[in-house]
Design the sequence.
């Protein structure tokens, strides 16, 4: 390998963020509720709904309790970090921009082998799927590239392009280390001392593996799940009661065919107060409760506390909530858009 | 004569879909040119594809459609002309035909004189016709999975279309699809040629221009280059060769535009892992070719097919990167292997209680218990029939067969289920018989796969599959049409194949009887019909018997697979004989007579009464049949089907004479009943090997 002035982990992060900021992305902060993947952040899962264009990038620590290895496995983590880019609608040269981003982190493409290999993505609990590729760099999967097609069971229009970089993998590749824990996270500018991923994160991997696999109190986890679910369900029930299923249904229809929005026949509430109430309604709060449930489910799964029959049933319950939130969100966005149109 | 070039450029098409799409686009364009009368007989077609493009080149396209002259017939002359003057009817027809009234002609037809017109349709220029048609042919390609990409636009395609080249000689054809207008610009290799367009001057330049832009458009050429590069790279290791893998060659051919190969190495210590695991990691996960020595044993090398010819320093970088990835993968596999050994397969049996087989049918533990009961039953049957079998090993194998579903290695490499169980059984000292039986349990998965090599493995395979089938049919999950979510056809095919090729003296009925108290007579009937279909498939498609031979044989019994094969072989060997063809015709006639009699409510006698036989011909047939029947039956019982069939064929002169001289449906009821009884007896007496009436005569 050529002597590599390889980036530290944090430089990698900064470079990528700068790269996408320069291309018009809003840099969001990691979402502060536990998620299993960057896609589950509302900045992706909810923002891909509806017609509003977006360009957003954020890093997202993603927790997968069952993947924990007590810090002993050099390739697997309980919590790994993704850099997530969402572009709606996706520009025609999205692949070229992506390849430029690799150059920006010091990968000279002419010296490497890059392939886009078919890899479709789906999250059945979110009623979401897309088609795309895994991007292979010298045999290593470094990115998942997806054109979102459906979310919350609703067809998307416009669709979004999603680029998910696996940061630990890319850093280990750039630095040519065999263990994630040997990644240089940062270098002291004065002494040049390397601070490794091990120093920053090993303790967390170890202790949370212990918690996830051994210590988490199963009956309390179930109790938490029940409470979060009940609260989320209550919010969704209230939403339906106040804004009628009609609003949701019409949103569902119109998420797909944007042009018809102007001539929407089944419009959301006309009454001014009710419109405002619709915009104030804490759909995002309900979504956070869904995320809590999803994480608790993963914890219970890691604890081996979910029997197969329960598994199917609990997943169906969470799906119900997540899809319900997505529909409510779409209805809310539709309402907001019609308000804007009315004002204009 | 102009050449046509049509290329659709897009984002990377899934490798598995490219070959079919290239063919479909080519077929569509050629068919369209044919429909539009734009093709000369001597035309030549070339098609190309890479991950980023589908292209078709046709030489021998007409510049314009030929004019077509057609005679249109109008109203009757008497209507069109009154007193030699054109009527409004004549004028309307002339207008419709686009000719002046004076140009109308008269045509004599059998129905009288009619007016007609000779109409010439001017052919349109090819470039216009193609402009109207090409986009639709592209849009019509079938893709297993489509996507939307443009906002508020309806088009769906496998991936976004980014450019189109459509040219007739030097001219651009006006084509637009998904907002992309055709031009002369294509693009070369993503990295090596970048975003700089490649301008095509003439369709003939297409391949050369792309080659200069680091794209080999021709699939066969790319495949050939990959094979040569694999040979070349392997040559550096004395005595080594890359392991042939046609499917993998196809995949990498469709993943690359400008392929080259690098060889990498891995630490010899990984060779301690089972070869199956190493090969799965290399082939399925990394798309690498394995390298073996002349004895077929793995060597610590691999070959990666790249989509680039890297600059010098790049080769090392890429080799190093690929080695790094493989090392991590092998480490994972070894880690899982070691972790899995901490809990033996026998201890894992309990863990199957939490692995669902089917939500209505319970867990794999429940299934295992059911499998055990069936396996014990089959073992009893086999030992009664004198088949030596290690009963203890069989029971152990059936008990542990599915436990590898709980291992980390199978969770990581699901395609290795069964194989991993077998390897673990061996590593854990369960004995070679147990290990072999578990290892081969999913074989045959496809018709061309071998059956398990040991009796214990065969019985395990039979017991597991028949349990699944009976249970699934029992809750109404039998396959319908193209839907077979539980792969029950495959399971039944495997059962048929094992019964056919193992030599085990077991029939389908034996298997069904071994499944205790499951289903009822109705389920049993359904299953028997299902197996009959699968056996039919096996005899026809795997063994290559003619369909009428198969029908004839199965009509005489379809529960004993091996016996059905033997009968089919015998019948296929003798069916060409004239005598048998005559017998077949006669038996068809007998069947028809009997059927008509039944329809008319005319009963046959229960037995033949020889004193009622009047004609010498019927006496002779009866005597011959009675003489032959025990001989044939004896041969049949001994499985000498060919001899039996040859003996049946000797009945021909008597049968022929009978139908020549004797009338069956005579008025005299007593005689008639007796003759019906005679032919019924002949039919039933000689149809136990095959129902000859099913045979289709060569003429």
Sequence:
């Amino acid at each position: 390998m050529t002597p590599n002035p390889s980036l530290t982990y944090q430089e990698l992060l900064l470079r990528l963020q700068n790269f996408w900021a320069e291309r018009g992305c809003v840099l969001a902060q990691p979402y502060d509720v536990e998620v299993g993947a960057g896609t589950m952040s509302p900045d992706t899962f909810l923002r891909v709904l509806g017609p509003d264009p977006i360009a957003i990038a954020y890093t997202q620590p993603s927790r997968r309790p069952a993947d924990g290895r007590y810090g002993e496995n050099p390739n697997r983590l309980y919590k790994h970090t993704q850099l997530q880019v969402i572009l709606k609608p996706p520009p025609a040269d999205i692949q070229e921009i992506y390849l430029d981003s690799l150059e920006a982190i010091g990968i000279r493409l002419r010296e490497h082998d890059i392939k886009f290999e078919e890899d479709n993505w789906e999250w059945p609990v979110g009623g979401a799927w897309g088609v795309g590729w895994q991007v292979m760099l010298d045999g290593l999967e470094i990115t998942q590239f997806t054109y979102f097609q459906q979310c919350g069971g609703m067809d998307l229009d416009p669709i979004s392009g999603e680029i998910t970089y696996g940061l630990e993998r890319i850093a280990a590749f750039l630095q040519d280390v065999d263990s994630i824990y040997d990644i240089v996270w940062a270098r002291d500018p004065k002494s040049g001392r390397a601070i490794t991923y091990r120093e920053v994160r090993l303790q967390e991997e170890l202790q949370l593996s212990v918690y996830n696999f051994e210590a988490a109190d199963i009956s309390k986890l179930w109790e938490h799940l029940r409470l979060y679910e009940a609260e989320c369900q209550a919010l969704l029930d209230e939403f339906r009661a106040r804004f009628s299923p009609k609003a949701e249904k019409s949103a569902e229809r119109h998420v797909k065919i944007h042009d018809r929005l102007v001539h929407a026949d089944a419009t959301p509430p006309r009454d001014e107060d009710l419109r405002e109430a619709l915009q104030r309604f804490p759909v995002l709060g309900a979504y956070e409760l869904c995320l809590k449930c999803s994480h608790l489910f993963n914890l219970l799964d890691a604890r081996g506390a979910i029997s197969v029959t329960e598994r199917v049933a609990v997943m169906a319950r969470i799906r119900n909530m997540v899809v319900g939130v997505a529909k409510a969100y779409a209805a809310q966005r539709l309402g907001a858009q019609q308000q804007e149109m009315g004002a204009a | 004569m102009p050449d046509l070039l049509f290329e659709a450029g897009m984002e990377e098409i899934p490798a598995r879909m490219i070959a079919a799409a290239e063919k479909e686009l080519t077929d569509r364009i050629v068919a369209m040119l044919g429909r539009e009368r734009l093709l000369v007989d001597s035309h030549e077609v070339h098609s190309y594809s890479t991950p980023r493009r589908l292209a078709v080149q046709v030489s021998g396209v007409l510049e314009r459609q030929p004019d077509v002259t057609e005679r249109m017939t109008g109203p009757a002359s008497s209507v069109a002309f009154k007193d030699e003057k054109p009527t409004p009817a004549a004028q309307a027809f002339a207008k419709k035909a686009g000719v002046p009234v004076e140009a109308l002609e008269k045509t004599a037809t059998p129905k009288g004189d009619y007016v007609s017109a000779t109409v010439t349709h001017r052919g349109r220029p090819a470039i216009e016709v193609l402009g109207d048609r090409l986009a639709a042919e592209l849009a019509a390609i079938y893709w297993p999975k489509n996507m939307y990409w443009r906002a508020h636009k309806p088009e769906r395609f496998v991936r976004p279309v980014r450019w189109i080249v459509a040219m007739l000689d030097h001219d651009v054809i006006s084509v637009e699809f998904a907002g992309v207008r055709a031009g002369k610009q294509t693009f070369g290799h993503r990295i090596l040629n970048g975003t700089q367009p490649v301008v095509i001057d003439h369709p003939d330049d297409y391949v050369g221009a792309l080659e200069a832009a680091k794209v080999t458009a021709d699939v066969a050429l790319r495949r050939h280059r990959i094979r040569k590069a694999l040979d070349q790279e392997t040559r550096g290791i004395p005595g080594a060769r890359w392991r042939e893998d046609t499917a993998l060659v196809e995949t990498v051919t469709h993943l690359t535009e400008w392929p080259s190969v690098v060889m990498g190495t891995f630490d010899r210590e990984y060779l301690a892992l089972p070869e199956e695991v190493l090969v799965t990691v290399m082939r399925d996960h990394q798309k690498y070719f394995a390298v073996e020595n002349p004895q077929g044993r793995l060597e610590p090398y691999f070959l990666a097919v790249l989509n680039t010819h890297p600059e010098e320093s790049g080769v090392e970088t890429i080799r190093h990167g690929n080695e790094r990835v493989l090392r991590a993968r092998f480490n994972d596999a070894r880690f899982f292997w070691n972790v899995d050994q901490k809990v033996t397969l026998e201890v894992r049996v309990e863990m199957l209680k939490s692995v669902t087989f089917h939500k209505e049918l319970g867990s794999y533990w429940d299934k295992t218990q059911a499998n055990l009961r069936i396996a014990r039953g089959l073992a009893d049957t086999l030992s009664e029939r004198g088949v030596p079998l290690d009963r203890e090993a069989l029971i152990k194998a059936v008990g542990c067969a599915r436990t590898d579903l709980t291992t980390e290695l199978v969770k990581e490499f699901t395609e290795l289920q069964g194989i991993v169980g077998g390897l673990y059984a061996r590593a854990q000292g369960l004995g070679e018989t147990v290990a072999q039986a578990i290892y081969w349990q999913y074989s045959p998965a496809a018709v061309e796969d071998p059956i398990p090599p040991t009796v214990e493995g065969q019985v395990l395979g039979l017991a597991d599959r028949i349990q699944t089938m009976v249970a699934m049919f029992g809750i109404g999950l039998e396959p319908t049409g193209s839907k077979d979510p539980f792969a029950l056809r495959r399971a039944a095919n495997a059962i048929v194949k094992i019964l056919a090729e193992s030599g085990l003296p077991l029939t389908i009925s034996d298997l069904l009887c071994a499944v205790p108290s499951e289903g009822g007579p109705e389920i049993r009937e359904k299953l028997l019909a299902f197996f009959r279909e699968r056996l039919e498939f096996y005899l026809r498609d795997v063994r290559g018997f003619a369909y009428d031979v198969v029908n004839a044989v199965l009509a005489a019994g379809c529960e004993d697979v091996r016996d059905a094969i033997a009968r089919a072989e015998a019948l296929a060997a003798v069916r060409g004989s004239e005598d048998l063809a005559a017998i077949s015709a006669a038996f068809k006639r007998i069947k028809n007579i009997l059927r008509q009699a039944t329809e008319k409510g005319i009963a046959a006698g229960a037995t033949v009464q020889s004193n009622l036989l009047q004609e010498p011909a019927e006496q002779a047939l009866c005597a011959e049949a009675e003489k032959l029947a025990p001989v044939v039956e004896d041969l049949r019982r001994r499985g000498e089907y060919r001899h039996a069939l040859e003996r049946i064929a000797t009945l021909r002169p008597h049968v022929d004479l009978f139908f020549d001289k004797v009338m069956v449906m005579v008025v005299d009821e007593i005689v008639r009943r007796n003759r019906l009884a005679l032919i019924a007896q002949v039919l039933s007496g000689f149809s136990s090997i095959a129902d000859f009436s099913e045979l289709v005569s060569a003429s």
User: Anything to note?
Assistant: Chain B touches chain A through 51 residues (CB under 8 Å).
